[in-house]
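Same chain as my last thread, 85 residues:
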Amino acid sequence: MFENSVEREIVGAEETAGEVRLWRAVVVRAIEDWMSGPLRRKRQAEHYIFNDHKDFARACESAGLNADDLRARLSRFRGRLSHQQ
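reply #2:
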């Protein structure tokens, strides 16, 4: 009986780690699309990251990230890019 509960905890931890990696990949893909995707994807990703607060925040939370902090850092990066152009 003890072994089963330990096994469940281990499997649950592995599933959780996999889910976190999956959500991090979703967030990274959105950032990659925003930075270097085709124009349509750039616009969609920009809307998702900067305007779709609820869904982006949920994805970040699932990825173990702070959406507000990430958005602030990306906004600063966006500001530097616009000054360079």
